[in-house]
User: What shape does this take?
Amino acid sequence: MFDSLALVTSPDILLAMVGGTLLGVVVGAIPGLGSILGLSIVLPFTFGLGTLPSMALLLGVYAGSVYGGSISAILINMPGTPQSAATSLDGYPMARRGQAGLAIGWASVASLVGGTFSAFVLMTVASPLAHFSLQLGPPEFFALTLMALVCVAAVSRGSMVKGLLAGLIGLFVAVVGGDPITGDLRFDYGILELSGGVNRIAVLIGVFALSEVFVQAVQLHDTAEYPNTGLGFRLPAWGPLAARWKTFVKSSAIGTFIGILPGTGATAASFVSYIEAKRAGRFREKFGTGEPEGIVASEAANNAVTGGALVPSLALGIPGDAVTALIVSLLVIKDVQPGPFLFTENPQFVYSVYWIFFLTNFIMVVFGALLTPVFTRILKIPTELLMGAITIFAFVGTYSLSGSAFEVVTCLVAGIVGFLLRINRFPLSALAIGLILGPLVEESLRQSLIVTDGSFPAIFLRPYSGLILVFTVLLILALNLKGRDRRGGKG
Amino acid sequence: MKSTWVRSAARALLVAAPLFAALALPGARAAEPLKVIVPWGAGGSSDTFARTLALSMRETLGREIVIINKPGAAGTLGTTLVAQAEPDGNTIGFSALAPFTMQPHLRKLAYDADSFAYVCEPAASPMVLAVRDESPFKSVADAVTFAAANPGKLKYGSPGPGSLPHLAMVELGLKAGVKWTHLPAKGGDMGNVRNLLGGHIDMVPIQILPLASNPIRALAVFSDARLDDLKDVPTMKELGYDVSHVIWNAMVAPKGTPEAKLAEFEAACQTAAATPAYKALLKKVRVPDTFKGRAALTAYAKAESDKFKVLFEQAGMKKKD
Amino acid sequence: MKGRAADAVYALAILLACGLLFVETRSDYYADTGIGFNSSSVFYPKILIALLALLGLVLLAQGLVRRRGAAPAPAPAPAADTAETTAAAVPLARRLAPLAVVLGLTTLFAALFARLPFLATSIPYSLLLGYLLGYRRLVFLVPTGVGVPVAVALVFEHLLGIPLP
Assistant: This one.
């Protein structure tokens, strides 16, 4: 095991790790550029590299981009990647209070804990866990997506009706395009670009980033001064950290578990974890007002997903999403066949991957610390100038998704709709999760109905899907009861 | 107030105008890169083939090659863009067969199988019908017998509606006179292997790569002849089912692309397909080393398109408009 | 009060959209089942539309009925995903003018984005936007207005190898 450590500390692997992580953090922090784009950029380099340096490069980009998204979520309320949407719930208020650097510090520690926790899981119980996960089929996925959706609607402040509405709007946008079961096109109105569905990343950028520009325009004369202090990177002190240890552990576990399941992903994980912390966390009363525990819940979970997602990819050769699919296909090209035999036939490779992943998480935090002053400088730019820059980033980001002007228009429309929703306090995070989980919700529901011969109740009459449903109901009940205590009868 | 706005606007325009002009001018670019549109996501098998071919074609053609992934609508979105691109030799496409020869019979599209000049077929991947190791079915006949006794009970997977595995199973069901249920799943072959291992489906047509590393086995091969890799596995034809399919990948150009360009692409593609890097890729993904040039591929694509047209009619799948 | 009235307007808009979408699902186009046989492609969208309409009605009811007594539900906390506008100290017109400018310019930018070279649209956009919104310190305006687009172009085209228009 430790000879593998020596192996991965060779200069070329270290260099690949550092380079990959740096790129990952930067693309993660820029709204619109996500993990996939970062990976596509480095993919050509891997043709000339060995297997381990290639893995170091890809894992660095992967872990770094998930972490990087939190930086812009905290600083400008604009999640760099959808995975960090939940981070902004408490991260942004903290930054508004003049603790931007400290908020990033919290996010860094949480990411580190989540990432290394999942690396540890990957190391020890990957094989049995991956085999267990096979038993979860369409009904379980449907139950899980339902849980994520309900959680988000519940977490959104204000009216739950609006939360659910926003979530449904997100789900409906995801319906446009081909039917997953029959292949028919729906709501495409004969527009070629819509036949492939609305580009969901473009919508997210529009709804989160571009709408901010419009909101700023309305508030231009309110002169809400952004604090110029507390911009330097600061790690949280030991005392506050120790007081929140339960959330660290629980969120990491939630993230790892959700990461193991195909398709659900880091966005859902961070919201489920956030709501669980809001229910049970020690500082739950202050959630939404800039409570570090909220950042911890979101960031520990979404970084734990990265390790979790590698579990089925390496142990079964079955990737759960586009990012791990890229990693698996690279491994096959490099003559490493991921699958049940990998752990017995090539343990050294698995250990090396574990170490790379483990070290990457530390490098990531170092870069976070180094880059924070650069990113926080953004806050000093006057609003009028920042607005133009945000639009440019939003459009360039969407354009680079597929080199098409249609995506830019999608982003603009989403920005205007997002603005209209925001001024009437519809929670955008619910819309985001509906949008992201939309295809999985429909696919798993309709697959389930095929499995159960068309019966809705039968979907939840299986042990694990039933369990998830019961857990969801309990979670919601617990939250509502608490809310009632506090707010005196208002839900 | 209004006049202030107008004046501000005018002044701002003055500030911006020279820059605008200066920057708009150097629009003329150096040699246009060759755009290869892959109508599937990055990391998929079409994408991997295209990227590996591009490594060598870049040098042979002496120009930059950009791979553009345009996934969506079962591959027809990106393929439409290829069909509608200027036939000037600056845009080509690369995909497996479905968007070229199958989808045009299933839905209204802006193109059909004749809208392309077929350049080369650098890979044709065989397909097998796979079941779990512990499945009670030892042969295709076992599955057919079970399905005949329990119509609709058996479930088969596919990467999506209208994909080749889906159609192959529809055809097999027709020829064997049985009914089974389709449960499509995202994630390509591996997504279906997952469902197979978890017991959510009973069988699935997949390529042969996952066979080696998973507890699954092949009942039959969809190719015309037995495979070198799987000598013991019979073909569907041997078993008495006249079903034969292979996942062929093609590089195509929009129809009307100059003859000289097509010949240049064909030669570059052939060179690329013979490079050690490409041969190594084929070996790793367990795809036999075959190659078709322009003439052979054009005839083959036509024959395939006609074959699917008849098949869809038999299966009662009508084209939707 | 004002919030409730707005809720009612939003609810009506949602209900209208639901109605239009529902009419569309009844059209002949979706009558055929296509290649998937026993499954309708609007089965799931119809569920969503029904849920949307139901919640839209709830929102409408809340907007019309629960006016009196009940204080606005959420405490005005700086929530991340709500845009809280503080008291309307500034006249409406002065709020809407910048919004109109931003909307107009951004729409124009989006329309021209893919037609002209990247720098030819982005530099005028960022300069104009800053200037029209009343920012007058050219010492900062020009460097950022030009610098940001140029930096973005450099990073994308040369570092990342992603072609821009």
Remarks:
- Chain A touches chain C through 80 residues (CB under 8 Å).
